[in-house]
Amino acid sequence: MNRYTREQMAARVARDIPNGAYVNLGIGLPTMIANHLPKDREIVLHTENGLLGMGPAPETGAEDYDLINAGKQPVTALPGASFFHHADAFGMMRGGHLDCCVLGAFQVSTGGDLANWHTGAKDAIPAVGGAMDLAIGAKSVFVMMDHQTKKGESKVVPKCTYPVTGLRCVNRIYTDLAVIDVTPEGLRVIDIVDGLSLDELVRLSGVPMSMAKTAVAA
Amino acid sequence: MIDKTVATAREAVADIRDGATIMIGGFGTAGMPSELIDALIEQGARDLTIVNNNAGNGDVGLAALLKTKRVRKIICSFPRQADSYVFDALYHAGDIELELVPQGNLAERIRAAGAGIGAFFTPTGYGTLLAEGKETREIEGRSYVLEYPIRADFALIKALRGDRWGNLVYRKTARNFGPIMASAAKCTIAQVREIVNLGDLDPEAVVTPGIFVKRVVEVPAAMKPVAQPGAAA
Predict the structure, then answer these.
(1) Active site residue A200
(2) Assign residue A186 a region: left if phi > 0, alpha if psi is -120 to 50, beta otherwise?
């Protein structure tokens, strides 16, 4: 079965981020999107530890550990960047000022519930960070994840079995098999990997989906 | 004359008593007031409640404080990290209480304390484990959770420059929790790389006005850049 590569997934998400957007890219897979943002668009990256206008990683030797991203990796500040404290950083989210955020996930439900912070394992130390704020805090919440677990179980589910991060918060899901909109009428497939039929995707996912009217079928 | 400057970190933390709630600035190591924490460890206060975004990295700073077992409880958003082994061991042994708070709620609860807000409704966390047992309300069609302020007896923060009135400016993303913690504690202690003369900080650029700060201690070694030759302050 064909699958989109990580790079293809990142490029596909990047294509959907419009010029002028304020965007938060979550830790993990979504950080790859920064490398694929179209050069002809001005897109301002937000990092919740207090920076708008985040640039790429610095050259080796030029790292400044007072200038880091939410993953605590050294970054740079582009011309036009601004620094702010944590309450402002999260006010930008909660207040609906961010246009878009892209998050990794363990599971997304057909209703748009997101699970991405905790596996629920008894001995695991819970850590939430900004996950719950990001889940509810942007005009559009995109999820970027593998379609299935390593065991082949669908990560698009009727109902999340892991502890949820937010309810009815996901707008669009980008996986290695498809791009799927979460709508009040159910899941709508807008892109599907070459050679995979909608029927097969639905069978693998175990949840109902239909093609969006504008979708380009394989 | 107002003079909030204190000669040493040791003197700055001398009156922190057992059982105190202490906010400690920093996101990971950026903005962590390591020298104030070292002075607190030396001072010996115990049975502490610590408020920080994380629960320490490696063996230094907050992790070193936790290692002394003088911290009863930590309020944070993200304790588990690749190098949070000191906290991890205490947690698994049942030697520390954890109150886990979504990061934005942590920041807003601190801000609310400083601003005199009694409580607030936030959408973050609604319907999750972290909102269990909390009051909720639907407002204009959206669901919210009631969250209360977090106040502290002391805040230990790090800034770039300060003056004798306690005005502060920060450095890049090391600002993080500094300004809000400064406002939420009865006694805020700032370690700064440099104490400057009154009037040397541009009033348009002051980030934390001195009213929020009780003590300022110069720690020139602090904020020493890590592996960043030639970078400007």
Answers:
(1) no
(2) left
